[in-house]
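Summary for the funding panel

The consortium committed to producing paired sequence-structure records for every protein in the target list. Below we show the first two records in order, beginning with the earlier of the two.
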Amino acid sequence: MVVSSLGVGGAERSSAILSRMLEDTGYEVTIISILNKISYAYKGNLINLEALTDTYRGLHKRIRKFVICQNLIKKENFDYIIDARSRPDWLRQWFINFFIYQKTPVVFVIHNYKLEDYFPENKFLARCLYSKAYQMVGVSNDSVTHFKDRYKLEKGICIYNAFDKEYLDELSKIKTDDISPDTYVLIYGRIVDESKNYSFLIHAYFKSRLIKNGVKLYILGDGQDKDMIQSLVKEYGIEDFVIFKKFSQNPFPYVKNALFTTLTSNYEGFPMVLIESLAMGTPVVSVDCKSGPSEVIETGKNGVLVPFQNENAYIEALNRMVEDQDFYKMCKQGTKSSVSKFKIENITPQWQAILPPRG
């Protein structure tokens, strides 16, 4: 498995889960991590390229990482390579395909509906890079349809990201000193406004009746736009109601104790925050961005799916989840059963089907 890292992000968490899932099924897994960000529990042999090239700088570091990968893959003669990185630089990817992956069957994973993170804009170049892929795996049906249609690729299947119910339950039981008895709604993940649209959330929360009802907003995470979002909170004068918490390797005690979690992204791949929340019995309110939420949420059964970028509808969803107790209870009752198909035991056979033993 080739990953950008195993820390800070849904794609990274999903890659860590995949490594555990494959090891537990009998595969021998080697993980090559480009960056030295290792937060999530994984299984297998970890090759940390950043740590191995710590004394190098600039171009020399890149070349050294390249050589280590090339030698490792040649020496180990892997049956399959799963490339789960973002791949925005087509020329670099061409070199990797030609000089490192060579004849090894490669499964390319697309974790986002925003195809620019994985494909070059030029359709001819995209087909050159991926037409000979062993398989292309998207993490939602919408994302698979999107890249197959845009680039006219024949290969492409959906395998949803899995969650480990027992693992989540154990993590959610760990006591966290700074969880107060507040009634709160939660959003967690990278604070990047271009993709996650935190400014939409802050404005809608300010205009909703949640503050009047004593419901706080917890924001759990870090990112390049955290200062900007904190400034926006101050501008609205709601510092006492919007509580910022630093990124945590274990957000699940917060998730379990939240009234509901929310998602306001402009685009996703398959947002695991929704799956994780529902798995712990916490309903969700999400905008219907591309892609993922519409394949998880059924309004009135496990939360509310709001038309994309419809602020009034989003505000009403927030209010209803707080003020309509019968509706809320109905959503909460349907949480866990709604995500059973995403459990590890149901996703594992789909990976086994595309990674058969090679003689």
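The next record, for a separate protein in the list, is shown here:
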Amino acid sequence: MSTFLAKPAEVERAWYVIDAAGKPLGRVAAQAAVLLRGKHKPTFTPNVDCGDHVIIINCKDAVLTGNKLTQKKWQRHTGYIGHLKETRYDTLMATRPNKAMELAVKGMLPKNTLGRNALLRLRLFEGAEHNHQAQKPQTVEA
């Protein structure tokens, strides 16, 4: 009996919807990362991009547990000397909740071309409406 190895042309991609309302941000991000990577499939192959498309709705209603809202910070650098910008997560969740979710999912994906291609299949929406009804996405319960 030989090990099954998926070929890129044989991969079938499904669409999934995750509702983040009232759920911890990290739990939703971890679930999305598994679906984007394709690790839930029996045909998972580590060196082949076999993940699915993921739509996350209600990003603004995701919660951060503990003191993360005030203690956790998002740091970015502008490229100029000494220009390290910090934003607390209470500000980030109020102004750009999609960015907070994207950063959480991106940190759980591999740091190579497979991870970058998987991140392209992630769609984030602040509210409950999304424009991908034509793909007939399946809802995922957490």
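Regarding this second record: The beta strands are 15-19, 53-57, 73-77, 84-88, 122-124, 138-140. The chain has five helices and six strands.
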